[in-house]
Amino acid sequence: MCIVRIFIQWQPLVMTHGTDIQARLRAAGLKQADLAAMLGVSVSTIHRQCIGAVPLSGYVLAFLAAWEMLSVDQRAELRAHLT
């Protein structure tokens, strides 16, 4: 995938709010605990970002954007590797 395409798809996520992230997690079939495990952070870290208590981290947005571009098989392989 071309880096320009990734940037264009990721760029709007910079303005994303926590509630948007929660909806995107559900649409992607992820729970906060899944995301936390794959990123190697605590569930409370992800939870605080999802409720807007702290700003969304760039790495969370980047991971979610990449996750959304993966096929079902690629997601399963990545999940198995990261958890």
Molecular structure report:
- With 83 residues, this protein is an all-alpha fold.
- It has a single domain, classed as 434 Repressor (Amino-terminal Domain).
- The protein has six helices and no strands.
- It starts with a helix and ends with a helix.
- CATH class descriptor: Mainly Alpha
Strand content: under 5%
Number of strands: 0
Largest sheet data: none
The radius of gyration over CA amounts to 12 Å
How many alpha or pi helices?
Answer: 6
Order of helices and strands: HHHHHH
Q: Uncertain segments of ≥5 residues (pLDDT<50)?
A: 1-8, 10-15
CATH architecture: Orthogonal Bundle
Quick overview of this protein structure:
The protein has helices at residues 3-10, 18-27, 32-39, 43-50, 58-69, 72-82. It has one domain: Orthogonal Bundle (434 Repressor (Amino-terminal Domain)), CATH 1.10.260.
Throw out a few tags for this protein:
globular; 434 Repressor (Amino-terminal Domain); disordered N terminus; 6 helices; 83 residues; mainly alpha
Topology:
Layout: H1 3-10, H2 18-27, H3 32-39, H4 43-50, H5 58-69, H6 72-82
